[in-house]
Specification:
10 helices, about 35% helix, two-stranded antiparallel ribbon, about 290 residues, pyruvate-formate lyase- activating enzyme
Length: about 290
Amino acid sequence: MAEEIIKENKVTKPKWLRVKLPVGKKYTELRGLVDKYKLNTICASGSCPNMGECWGEGTATFMILGNVCTRSCGFCGVKTGRPETVEWDEPEKVARSIKLMNIKHAVITSVDRDDLKDGGSIIWEETIQAIRRANPNTTLETLIPDFQGEEKNIDRLLKAAPEVISHNLETVRRLTREVRIQAKYDRSLAVLKYLKDNGQRRTKSGIMLGLGETEDEVIETLHDLAKAKVDIVTIGQYLQPSKQHLPVKDFITPEQFKKYEKIGLELGFRHVESGALVRSSYKAQKHLD
């Protein structure tokens, strides 16, 4: 268990959990571009603790299909509600921005768009195609929603052929209903297996710790991801975006993260990123190696 102090039923953040402040010329440049072109990045919308570090190194994760999600996951800092109308020029705008930023490896994600018949998969496919046209040397990772398990929508992503396709399981089976209210644990596993079986792309998934899961449950989840033929796994500490979101039950020690990394590698994953500040797209380019 983490070294923790309980005060008024709250878990005090430990000393080892420190977030770097956004600094540097490159970060300032990217901040200016994101603001100028009104781009939606999960870095900002999702309150990612690595925003300063990643942007300082000239990398960013773009969020398409708006910044309002149709799902109300208990862990996520992205707004929930009725999304705005689809912007059909968004693929070209994202592609131009990647070129302006001179990004060599781009990560694309999106909100869930259960309000759309295609789940947003058409915009997904067109965004990848637009990036390929404008940036032929840029490699891509796509962090996709589950598209409610609709294979015809998933097939659009496989056809577009990004180098890495990622879908996050987020938490253990027992906590899924509480953490990912409209999602299903087995559906997410089925999506990951479908991606591997039908596209032979490099697949990736991530989970958060500190929501009340047990060690045995984390290990069971790693086994489930291995059975789904996932190549890359990220394991990070859950951090509460606001008081309205699920509370942190405990902080996982660096030693425990290392233990999970060792177990994951023994299960045969190609890469395992495991640490308090690890997020799905953290150091994403190295997962191509």
